[in-house]
Amino acid sequence: MFDRFRTFLDSLTGSGSSVIEPGDPRIAIMALCIQVMEADGEIHEKERRKVRSMIKDHYQLDDAALNALITAGETAESQAIDFFRFTSDIKRHFSEEQRIDLVGMLWEIAYADGKRSEMEDHVIWRIADLLGVSGRDRIIKRQEVAAKLDVVEETTAQQEK
Fold first, then answer.
1. C-alpha closest to that of 30 among 60, 56, 5
2. pLDDT tens for residues 13-53?
3. Cβ atoms of residues 90 and 72 within 8 Å
4. For FRET with 80, which of 28, 35, 69, 104 sits at 20 to 30 Å CA-CA?
5. DSSP string, 73-110
6. Are 138 and 103 in contact (CB under 8 A)?
7. The pTM is what?
């Protein structure tokens, strides 16, 4: 699923490149991943592990480069006032299919703790909208990830009722 995405990113950053420089599109992706992790007000260790695993495998980074990317993403995320800073850069450089695949990655983070919250839904909806990903594609990706991870399709608010 991420082969097209990986090929495109490799063309932007160099295959396996571990140098993190300002303007590196991996920083925007990491910042969005962090936004999704923080959306429900609590960051679960499972979410952290999921992000580390996905990004490390995807970019073929060693631990030092991964930690540098996470730090750069955290810094960028903490300085941003909205998602536009990240989504506009991604939208300029990524094809529609790659942006849809990115939304799938964000759903994997949301489901990493076994459930999704309404806030995670909202954050991913907003990011997808800014990326130009249709509501239909966003929902299809959510359903694909839920089926892959074998999780029940309900938000935490629905679970509390």
1. 56
2. 444 455 677 778 889 999 999 999 999 888 889 999 999 99
3. no
4. 104
5. HHHHHHH-SSSHHHHHHHHHHS-HHHHHHHHHHHHHHH
6. yes
7. 0.81
